[in-house]
């Protein structure tokens, strides 16, 4: 099988544990691109938090963002495909989660927002501040999410987080699955988007736009929200250390994101 494209999850996969792209991965990706291989980012991140890596890799392809909620074109600041939350649904999710004492952040059209800081956003803000100003992500505090919603701002996703995993699971289990798609993006965090959204579904739309058969794509991922993507493509690869279910659904498992495992795999696959 001659593969034409590579799809990468970011956190836990292409990004090392300290949120950088390994030099070996960068070199292997560049060599693959020189052979005509397309490279796509498929992430749970908002596009504003993809921008530093997109610029670092000098990519020119659309990005699947927020677990398949939208397809973003950096060149034109254009949303090519999307399925956002309705204002009413977003408000319901926010109010219900806050009533349970669960931390909420909301990803609006152009920014990642929070009403109150939590450890995740403290860490995120440190990373944001370390980014070059020209590619710095827009992460900021808002007084009230509802005010932004009432102003008509598009809501991509509601992110909930709590160290009490039983409380989190109970909240997720009670969600109306005919209206929303919850995805666990970390052990204590769940992303809630409009029903039907997944990395695999939006990657399929992207590949159709690009004229590429999914069977001719290699994908790398590490978490539950990557399973739909790993199962869509011709070769789905799980990172070492990822959850057992992710590894079981993938075609193979390689080393961890702290090792040169991606570079080694790409070198073998594409004879770099």
From TrEMBL:
The UniProt entry, under SUPFAM superfamilies, shows: HAD-like
Listed GO molecular functions?
Answer: magnesium ion binding; phosphatase activity
GO cellular component: a single term: cytosol
Q: Which CDD domains match?
A: HAD_Pase
Q: What keywords are annotated for this sequence in UniProt?
A: Hydrolase
Hydrolase keyword on record: yes
**Domain of life per record:** Bacteria
Which PROSITE patterns does this chain map to? COF_1, COF_2
A Pfam family matched by this chain, by name? Hydrolase_3
InterPro entries per the UniProt record, alphabetical = Cof, HAD-like_sf, HAD-SF_hydro_IIB, HAD_sf
What protein am I looking at?
Cof-like hydrolase
Q: Which organism is it from?
A: Haemophilus paraphrohaemolyticus HK411
The organism's taxonomic lineage, starting at the top: Bacteria, Pseudomonadati, Pseudomonadota, Gammaproteobacteria, Pasteurellales
């Amino acid at each position: 099988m001659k593969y034409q494209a590579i799809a990468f999850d970011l956190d836990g996969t292409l990004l090392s544990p300290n949120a950088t792209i390994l030099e070996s991965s960068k070199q292997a990706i560049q060599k693959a691109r020189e052979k005509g291989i397309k490279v796509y980012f498929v992430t749970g991140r908002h596009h504003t938090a993809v921008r530093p890596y997109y610029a670092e890799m000098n990519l020119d392809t659309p990005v699947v963002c927020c677990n398949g909620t939208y397809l973003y074109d950096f060149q034109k600041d254009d949303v090519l495909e999307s399925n956002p939350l309705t204002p009413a649904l977003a408000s319901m999710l926010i109010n219900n989660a806050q009533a349970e004492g669960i931390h909420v952040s909301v990803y609006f059209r152009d920014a990642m927002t929070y009403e109150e800081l939590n450890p995740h956003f403290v860490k995120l803000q440190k990373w944001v501040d370390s980014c070059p100003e020209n590619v710095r992500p827009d992460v900021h505090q808002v007084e009230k999410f509802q005010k932004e919603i009432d102003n008509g701002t598009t809501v991509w996703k509601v992110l909930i987080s709590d160290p009490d995993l039983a409380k989190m699971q109970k909240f997720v289990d009670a969600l109306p699955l005919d209206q929303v798609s919850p995805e666990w993006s970390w052990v204590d965090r769940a992303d809630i988007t409009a029903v039907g959204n997944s990395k695999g579904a939006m990657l399929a739309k992207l590949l159709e736009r690009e004229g590429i058969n999914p069977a001719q794509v290699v994908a790398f991922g590490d978490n539950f929200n990557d399973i739909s993507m790993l199962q869509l493509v011709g070769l789905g690869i799980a990172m070492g250390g990822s959850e057992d279910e992710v590894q079981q659904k993938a075609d193979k498992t390689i080393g961890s994101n702290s090792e040169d495992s991606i570079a080694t795999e790409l070198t073998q696959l594409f004879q770099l």
